[in-house]
Amino acid sequence: MTGGARSRRVLLLLLLVGVAARAASGGGIDGLLPNGNFEQGPDKSQMNGTRVMSPNSIPNWVISGFVEYIGSGQKQNDMILPVPEGPYAVRLGNDATIRQQLSVTRKAYYSITFCAARTCARAERINVSVGPESGVLPVQTVYTSSGWDSYSFAFKARHTTVWLAIHNPGLEDDPACGPLIDSVAIKTLDPPRREKGNMLRNGDFEEGPFIFPDTAWGVLVPPMDEDDVSPLPGWMVMSGTKSVKYVDAAHHAVPRGARAVELVAGREAALVQEVPTTPGRWYALSFSVGDAGNGCAASEAMMTVEAYAGREAARVPYASRGSGGRTRGGLEFAAVANVTRVVFQSYNHHMKRDGTLCGPVVDDVSLVAVRKRAGRRLLL
After folding, report:
1. Radius of gyration, alpha carbons of the chain
2. What is the SS3 assignment for 237?
3. Closest CA to 303 of 289, 314, 324, 286
């Protein structure tokens, strides 16, 4: 065997070992599901107008209830139904469900990202489930001028094959009324551990749900119960119906790294992480506050992030011009329990000129134990 052939064989072997190791770890699943953008549609013989009549007529999906196959620019009365990517999407009318079976790695964590838009129902919401994991995503609030938002949902795989279901539980007088769905993707999550120098997990927000590279509006992380699997590992969103937005450096100004969180709902949503602490011991929390460079300018009031930990609180203001930038803030606190909640929320509501909600960005969050109080706390 020649030296060149031997080198190519060794290289091929190393590549195969790397692929096998990645597959064994549950990685490698990132991007659109098969026919996740619904570009492969039903035959006309399987449709009644726009309604899809056969359960298996949309390739790779199983449907039930009132499901429509919608073309971009299609009208309903005087309303145009836009499609965010490609020429087609589906609409989930009364009690409608779309399902797809996924091959996953048992005990691995995954996030689902999909685009959704309201149409004509009064109180639209979407139920997402994978096996026993399920959640209700409210879609009443629209966060983009286009009307389309990206939503995220996470689960831990109980088996090697699972069913993803997206369901509209609504029952309207017009059975077609319901949300439009497009671009369904999956990502393997690698939940980060606490590392030396930071007691928080995922304090830089680098691990999170899939962000579509051709969309500039980020991904909403919806409110969740405390026992839910979070699409933003380490963090929970506490709210009734509002979300926070996960943004990327490709389309936004990010204080550090490639990802950050935009607090788009004022005091109506809080970003929370619980961390083990020792009662009576002092800790220092520090973080960056900025704007996403998306035109969210604080014209009348400063963008302000409120932070809470133990019995202490701080307000960190930032004079935003909507073009990016950051400041550093923090607080010190004495723990009063074995577990302390670190909480962030926007002090005010903010809107861009097009009327869509926006807010301050939080990033690069660090928590460390300190020997004594240093007196650098930012007071309310």
Report:
1. 23
2. strand
3. 289
Q: For residues 88 and 61, is the Cβ–Cβ distance under 8 A?
A: no
Angle 238-242-243 from CA coordinates, rounded to 5°: 75
pLDDT at 121: 64
Instruction: Determine the Cα–Cα distance for residues 186 and 29; give it in Å rounded to an integer.
Output: 7
SS3 category, 13: helix
- pLDDT score recorded for residue 176: 85
Domain boundaries, the chain: 30-189, 228-370
- What would the two tokens of residue 269 be? 């949503």
The tokens describing 261, both together, are: 């969180």
Domains 30-189 and 228-370 share a fold: yes
Q: Is 103 exposed, middle or buried (0-12, 13-18, 19+ CB in 10 A)?
A: exposed
- Is the C-alpha dihedral spanning 210, 154, 148, 165 positive or negative? positive
The CATH superfamily holding the domain 228-370 is: Galactose-binding domain-like (2.60.120.260)
- Tokens for 285, please give them: 């929390």
Q: What is the pLDDT of residues 229-244, one digit of tens each?
A: 999 999 999 998 999 9
Local structure of residue 267 (DSSP, 8 states):
G
In the structure encoding, which two tokens stand for residue 100, read together? 């797809």
Alpha carbon distance 98, 161 (integer Å): 17
Burial of 111: CB neighbours in 10 Å, binned 0-12, 13-18, 19+: buried
Beta partners for 334? 282
Is pLDDT above 80 for 122? no
Q: What is the dihedral of CA 86, 33, 259, 224, to 10 degrees?
A: 110
Is residue 14 predicted with pLDDT exceeding 90? no
CA 252 to chain centre: 15
236 sits in which H/E element: strand 236-239
d(CA 36, CA 115): 10
Q: Which CATH architecture has domain 30-189?
A: Sandwich (2.60)
pTM of this prediction? 0.88
